[in-house]
Every structure is written in C-alpha cells, then in structure tokens.
C-alpha cells in the first residue's frame, strides 16, 4: 500500500513539475526578434528565369518575362492565440524585384517574440497612406521613383509590374507586353493577401524565422480571370495593359498568386 501511495505521489509530483516547466517556457517567451519574408517568383510549377525561359499559358501564349516588380506593404502577423502584430506602416514598404538579391527577401525587426501562424500583406500602397504623402511613406516615395514604380509623383504608385515579350497562335513574332497595376480612374487596385503558415514561425531573441513565399506569376493573366495578351495587342506598341476593365480583374488574380512553401526557424 505504501509503495502504491509513493508511486501515486511521485506521478503527481512529476505531472505538476511538467506543467510548471511548460508554463515557465510559455512565460519566458519575451523580448523582440526578427522575421524574414522571402519572395520566390515562379511561373506555374517552374522557378522563374528572366529573359530566356518560355512560359506557356492555357491560352497557348508563350511569355518570356524580363521584369517583375511589386510593392509589398502593410505587413501583419497573427499569433497562435489569435492576437495580431501590425508592423509599423511607416516601415512596411518593400519592393520585390526578381532582378536583384535585395529585392527577393526582406527582414522585419522588433517583432514581439511568439509563435506566429499567419502573415498578411498588401500589394501596393493603400489609399489612406497614399493620401498622407511623405508623412505616410517617408523615403519610400523616392525609392519607388528610382525603381520605376511610380506613374508620376502626382499620379501615384505602380503596385505591380510585369514586362517581357510574347508570342501566340495569332501573334507569331516576339511582341512586347507590359502589365502595370495601380490607381487608374476610380479603380485603386490595391489588394491584401492573408496566408496560413504550414508550421509556426517561432520568433525569439535568438531565432529569426524565414517565411518562404512562392509567387506564381502565371496567375496574373491565367488565374481565375483569363486574360489574352493577343486581345490587347496594339500593333507596333505591343500588349499594354495599364488601365481599363482588365486591371481590376488582374488585381483579383494577383490576390491568388501567393502561397507559403515552408518556414525555417533558425
């Protein structure tokens, strides 16, 4: 009987100890850390290669892409408990650029330590921030201008830019195309994307998670809304989509082109 009671007390003590350790671990998650967002451009199942790779759409148009740029903004992280951390908007502007190493990953600092399960970000600059001018975007106005991501200082930002050459069954010679989104007329064309993380991003003072995001550029014109470059070909100018009815539905397509491939907790 004494042995049974001893074992029972020992099990109870061990259980309390484990619970206490678990609580201590939870309570010890404090301080700030960093998160890296990595944007990996692809076309369908293939990693994107600029200028030489032929990328075929469901409309049998073949694109050779020479330029991919888009503004990433308004980053928000969601913790496992459902609470959110809004990265300061004044610091939350980045230009993803396939042509440069600096344009493929961005490190965000001073993130409260915790276990994060979602990330949300905008493509473009939201209208409220644009109306604030330099007070809302700081030095980013000049940075975007230098990167060619402004229509003009007065007209606003280009949110997304995709350029290159294409051929199709009806356009047999390599022909330029440009797809630029942003504010046109009454359409603002800003969109926000929310992505679940396949594994938690464990932000600690000594752990900097990297969230690896795949951007499937095929969905820009071959997503839920199908766009034919051939239908937008303007003779000697090529296919120039920078306004009109196509831009809002391309913005809808852009909203579907991101997914998280994996998270590194290093």
Automatic annotation (TrEMBL):
Top-level lineage group: Bacteria
Q: Which residues form the signal peptide?
A: 1-22
Alphabetical list of InterPro entries matching this protein? MbnP-like_dom
Which residues are in coiled coils? none
Q: Name one Pfam family in it.
A: MbnP
Alphabetized, the UniProt keywords read: Signal
- Carries keyword Signal? yes
- Recorded protein name is Copper-binding protein MbnP-like domain-containing protein
């Amino acid at each position: 009987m004494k042995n049974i009671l001893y074992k029972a007390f020992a099990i109870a003590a061990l259980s309390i100890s484990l619970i206490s350790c678990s609580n201590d671990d939870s309570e010890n998650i404090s301080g700030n850390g960093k998160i890296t967002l990595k944007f990996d451009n692809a076309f369908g199942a293939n990693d994107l290669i600029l200028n030489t790779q032929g990328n075929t759409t469901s409309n049998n148009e073949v694109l050779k892409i020479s330029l991919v740029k888009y503004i990433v903004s308004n980053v928000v992280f969601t913790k496992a408990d459902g609470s959110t951390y809004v990265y300061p908007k004044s610091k939350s502007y980045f230009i993803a650029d396939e042509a440069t190493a600096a344009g493929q990953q961005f490190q965000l600092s001073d993130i409260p330590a915790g276990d994060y399960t979602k990330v949300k970000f905008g493509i473009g600059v939201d209208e409220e921030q644009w109306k604030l001018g330099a007070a809302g975007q700081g030095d980013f106005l000049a940075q975007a201008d230098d990167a060619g991501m402004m229509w003009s200082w007065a007209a606003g930002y280009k949110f997304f830019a995709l350029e290159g050459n294409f051929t199709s069954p009806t356009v047999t010679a390599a022909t330029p195309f440009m797809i630029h989104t942003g504010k046109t007329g009454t359409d603002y064309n800003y969109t926000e994307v929310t992505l679940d993380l396949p594994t938690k991003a464990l932000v600690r003072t000594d752990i900097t998670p990297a969230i690896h995001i795949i951007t499937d550029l095929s969905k820009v014109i071959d997503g839920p809304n199908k766009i034919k470059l051939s239908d937008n070909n303007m003779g000697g100018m090529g296919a120039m989509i920078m306004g009109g009815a196509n831009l809002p539905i391309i913005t809808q397509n852009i909203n579907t082109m991101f997914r998280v491939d994996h998270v590194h907790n290093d």
